[in-house]
Every structure is written in C-alpha cells, then in structure tokens.
Design brief:
The chain has about 160 residues and is mainly β. It has one domain: Alpha-Beta Barrel (Multidrug-efflux Transporter 1 Regulator Bmrr, Chain A). It is about 15% helix and about 40% strand. Strands 1, 2, 3, 4, 5, 6, 7, 8 and 9 form a 9-stranded antiparallel sheet that branches. It is globular, with a radius of gyration of 15 Å.
C-alpha cells in the first residue's frame, strides 16, 4: 500500500449533502440516488468524474456524525441548481490510494492502521474524498477509484 503524495489546488464543487454516522451506509446510497438524476443540471462541469466527500469535525471521534457530499467539480459557481450547494476543497497535501473493488471500509482500515502509523504523516483537518472516474463501476468487484486522504508531515 504505497500512495502518491501530491499537493492539490483548491477544487470547486456543486452537489448535495447529508449527515451520517459510521455504519449508516444506506445514507450514502440515498444521497447518490438524489444527486445522480440531477447531475446534468450542473452547467460548469470540468469533467465526468464524481466526487464523494466526507467532512469530519473530529476525525478521531468515530462516534460523532459527519457530513457527506455527492458532487461534481466545476469551473465556477454560477447557475447552481435548486436544492444543490457549493463546496470548496481547500488546497493541500493528499495521500492518494487506488481502491479496487467494493469494500471501501477495508481499504480505509488498511490506510489508517497499516500505512499511516509508519508513514511519517498524520491526518490533516481537511475533507477526505474519493474520485470516481472512468474505471469506477458501481457495485462491481472490478471497480476502481482514488481515495484522497488529507495529510501533513509529522514534525518532531
């Protein structure tokens, strides 16, 4: 499990949001079912990729609710469809992991318990997100997506 560490520029997004707790996976499905039929209403799309976002108030407090978003990246915030919102992912360093298959929880568990403790990085307080591009196939064991984990170097 070796990620690419990159610095990303700010990303502008438009989409829908909800709140969930760990284990409430049905809320993720419900959110995407609301977003996907309306994605084509977004006029300033940069590409066809989908972006799933998680915003934690405290990443280490796994019993707390957190925000989830179903989005697409845009060039500007003009003409926002009704019942959708804007969101900006701030610039910063991210560890990018290729996830294959349908068990995202297992991949995240490995990132946090295997890679992170020996990486020299710690989780930064910015959104976590997944980019679902051309190789993403919903519900397929052959599906591929990129997990973006916000990181910063540990300074001793």
């Amino acid at each position: 499990m070796t990620p690419k560490i990159i610095s990303i520029s700010e990303k502008k997004l438009i989409g829908k949001k909800s709140t969930m707790r760990h284990g409430e996976y049905g809320k993720i499905i419900a959110l995407w079912k609301q977003f996907m039929p309306r994605k084509n209403e977004i006029k300033a799309l940069i590409n066809t990729e989908l972006i799933a976002i998680q915003v934690y108030s405290n990443f280490n407090a796994m019993d707390k609710p957190f925000e989830i978003r179903a989005c697409a990246e845009v060039s500007n915030f003009e003409n926002i469809p009704t019942e959708m919102e804007t969101f900006t992912i701030p610039s910063g360093d991210y560890a990018i992991f290729l996830h294959k298959g349908i068990n995202a929880s297992e991949t995240y568990q490995k990132i946090m318990t295997e890679w992170l403790p020996s990486s020299g990085y710690k989780i930064d307080n910015r959104p976590h997100f997944q980019v679902m591009g051309a190789k993403y196939i919903n519900g397929s064991p052959d599906s591929e997506e990129d997990f973006y984990v916000p990181v910063k170097l540990v300074i001793n």
